Amino acid sequence: MTTTRMQALARDDLPLHALATRLLAVAEAGLPAMYRPEDEAFAFTLAGSRAPDGSWRLERRGTSTRYAAITVLGARYLPEPRQRAVLGGHSAEEFTGLLVQRLPEVANLGDAALIAWAAAETGHPKLADALARTAALDADGGPRYTVEAAWVLSALAAARHSEAGGTELERRLSTARDRLLRARNAGSPLFPHATGPGLVPWYRAHVACFADQTYPLQALARTHASADGPGGDPEALAAADACAKRICELQGEGGQWWWHYDARPGRLVEGYPVYSVHQHAMAPTALFDLADAGGADFSAEIRRGLRWMTEVPELAVGSPGGTPSEPMILDDLGVTWRKVHRGDPRKAVRAGQGLASLARPGRRLALLDRLYRPASVDRECRPYEFGWMLHAWLGGAQ
User: Fold this and answer.
1) What is the pTM of this model?
2) Alpha carbon separation from 249 to 8, 258, 298, 358 (Å, rounded)
3) How would you list the strands of the sheet with 339-341, edge to edge?
């Protein structure tokens, strides 16, 4: 499919356009293998293991409601026959209907918000039910994990001009927007892991992850874009811009989108793992949505991050720039391996760097970096990775 995002990539970098086209083909080929027809659901993960003869075995494990909803958010951009090919024979709206039917059993706020977001984007007639379930799970006014709070805001922004919109939705949207904006430390452009105290232990409350940045900046950009009137929501857009600018300033030399940040001053805590989904999907979809909303253009950083998928400097053989010892994209299997990581036991590096930075922001324990090199590959692939990939590269203006 041709979209303005893919057209721009073809104009700016033909080899990267070929890479994005290749990745989209892998996503469409791989998603059917992640579908569990017996449950009419998507697996939580597809795990790969290698046999002695070198062949791969892929095993579906578990199921995930939120991953299914994210898959719909991406698959909805495909023509209907191709939607049905990746969604177990269902169109995006029909599959959203299956998720809406299961809402009474959904107890997680993030899952409910993603279903509501999918219902808004597919024009599902029971959008009001999905919004009501989200509101019920968000009713106590307590702190929320930032990612889930961002999904609530994205769902409300998507539903803003639907038949479910109105005064009550605007009130809830305003509350969700303000909750995200207030969560930041004064003077910091980054978002914490939770919107208030109580959910995260004190000794790591300052540590936030990459998802804690991309989902809020995306939600705030979409809030600005959905606002009535020519001015939109400049405060929301400014916050999204500032967050995006900072994570782009911290991007690695090899295009890596790093994993853990100190949300207080907006500095890096620990870079690894580097996740494929961040490189080919989550960073692009958030930064593209920001640009579409009238925010800053970070297309150069998007391209640099995408290039990591084939260069993978952590796995380079011989010298920097060498061929990776293992590919992250396996076209024949329909997977992209999940991440490159240190292989440290019990996430020791993250814990050590988090404690080191607690009292002195920016402090790092160099010994841990030397002891645990990032040369291990997590051979899993999850459906949401491909859902966001489709959303990133096929979304925007058609």
Assistant:
1) 0.94
2) 22, 11, 11, 22
3) 274-275, 339-341, 376-378
Residue type, 326: E
Q: In 3-state terms, the chain is what percent helix, strand and coil (to 5)? A: 55, 10, 35
For residue range 118-143, list pLDDT tens digits in order: 999 999 999 999 999 999 999 998 99
| pLDDT value, residue 348 | 73
Tokens describing residue 85 = 């090919």
- Does an H or E element contain 82, and which? helix 80-86
| Backbone dihedral angles phi then psi of residue 335, each to the nearest 5 degrees | -140, 155
Q: How far apart are CA 48 and CA 44, in angstroms?
A: 13
Q: Checking DSSP bridges between strand 260-262 and strand 45-50, what pairing results, if any?
A: unpaired
CA–CA separation, 360 and 262 (whole Å): 10
Say how far apart CA 241 and CA 219 lie, in whole Å: 12
Query: What is the b/e burial string over 89-108, where b = at least 16 CB atoms within 10 angstroms of the residue's CB?
Result: ebbbbbbbbbbbeebeebee
Check if the beta carbon of residue 3 is closer than 8 Å to that of residue 395.
Answer: yes
Asked if residue 30 lies in contact with residue 335, where contact means CB atoms within 8 angstroms, the answer is yes
